Amino acid sequence: GAVVSQHPSWVICKSGTSVKIECRSLDFQATTMFWYRQFPKQSLMLMATSNEGSKATYEQGVEKDKFLINHASLTLSTLTVTSAHPEDSSFYICSAALLGGGETQYFGPGTRLLVL
Amino acid sequence: AQSVAQPEDQVNVAEGNPLTVKCTYSVSGNPYLFWYVQYPNRGLQFLLKYITGDNLVKGSYGFEAEFNKSQTSFHLKKPSALVSDSALYFCAVRDIASGGYNKLIFGAGTRLAVHP
Question: Measured between beta carbons, which residues in chain B are less than 8 angstroms from residue A112?
């Protein structure tokens, strides 16, 4: 149980285009979904937290207009990287917390983005 | 602010030997502590957590962790390492963000290499 999927698993795009990444909780409902960014050989950095039906909460230093987050249902959150640039190339990982389960986050497999 | 520290970038151990991956924490209040494992180009997998109760927590794949309040530590252990345990291990602590939701603060990660 507690499986989280991400799509796509990797994407290559041209500079200036937008990329959408989906995060789905497959067998549970998620109160909250989280979006992280991980640079090579580094830890995860929380970008934002999304709650179903409300605006995402962004961490300090993360541009909300650059990284658009939509949490349309209790099983789906999307991250759109708008007008992507090479410096946006990274490994993006989402996680989800069980409805009523609180503390434990279950992570997706990640999406590797390469912006040319 | 809540934080965790993983003092070792890498731990090397021979297959069959016991392994320890260290984590220390700094929190205000009672700590909620977690261990996750990440395999190459994958998301994080939940191993175990400590919230309250017994100081020795048993988790997935034969791993366990010992909560030590006096030493503010939460070291991950396994009695007999397998080559397949080679991966990147993250310690994390729960924090409460301004929006009231739970979020995780991750350590820098420790790479475990188990040699045949």
Answer: 41
